[in-house]
Amino acid sequence: MRIITHTIRIQTTKPVEIIDITPEVTTALVSSGLQQGQVTIISQHTTAFININEKEERLLEDMETWLKRLVPKDGNYLHNLNPIDGRHNAHSHLLGLFMNSSETIPFSDGKLLLGEWQSLFFVELDGARKERKVLVQISGI
Q1: Is residue 19 part of a domain?
Q2: What is the pLDDT of residues 24-67, one digit of tens each?
Q3: Which CATH number fits the domain that encloses residue 13?
Q4: Count H helices, E strands: the chain?
Q5: Which three-class secondary structure state does DSSP give residue 112?
Q6: How many CA atoms lie within 13 A of 9 on its CB side?
Q7: Domain extent at residue 13
Q8: 84 lies in a domain?
């Protein structure tokens, strides 16, 4: 068994943004040369997450709208009284309670075993950010 680690760097442009990272993960898998195993994708941030869902333009817009409505940015949050990095981002952390920081996907014959309509997404909840990092760890043979 071999383990290969790759980092995807992402620049975000909006406060809430859903970015398809399936092509980058697929490229990392293909370049690994591995044929069978698992790929684990993890966001290295507490206000950005990984999600598997359908890539359809209007659905992605619905998701962004829903996230903004679920936990409004202008809520009365204690975290915002003394933010560590000067960002009033309590809403982003609270939205994270409903999300995963990582996903693990099996692969076979060098291909991700995602369903027909599934894509991998990086979900930014505290943008815009110059650089976000997603760790891709590929384990297999």
Answers
A1: yes
A2: 999 999 999 999 999 999 999 999 999 999 999 999 999 999 99
A3: 2.60.120.460
A4: 3, 8
A5: strand
A6: 2
A7: 2-69+98-140
A8: no
CB 113 within 8 A of CB 106: yes
DSSP string, the chain: -EEEEEEEEE---SSSEEEE-HHHHHHHHHHHT--EEEEEEEESSSSEEEEEEE--HHHHHHHHHHHHHHS-TTS--GGGGS-TTS---HHHHHHGGGSBSEEEEEEETTEE---TTEEEEEEESS---S-EEEEEEEEE-
Q: Total domain count for the chain?
A: 1
Q: For residue 78, is it within any domain?
A: no
Distance CA 121, CA 115 (A): 14
Tokens 């995807």 correspond to: 8
Per the domain annotation, does 40 fall within a domain?
A: yes
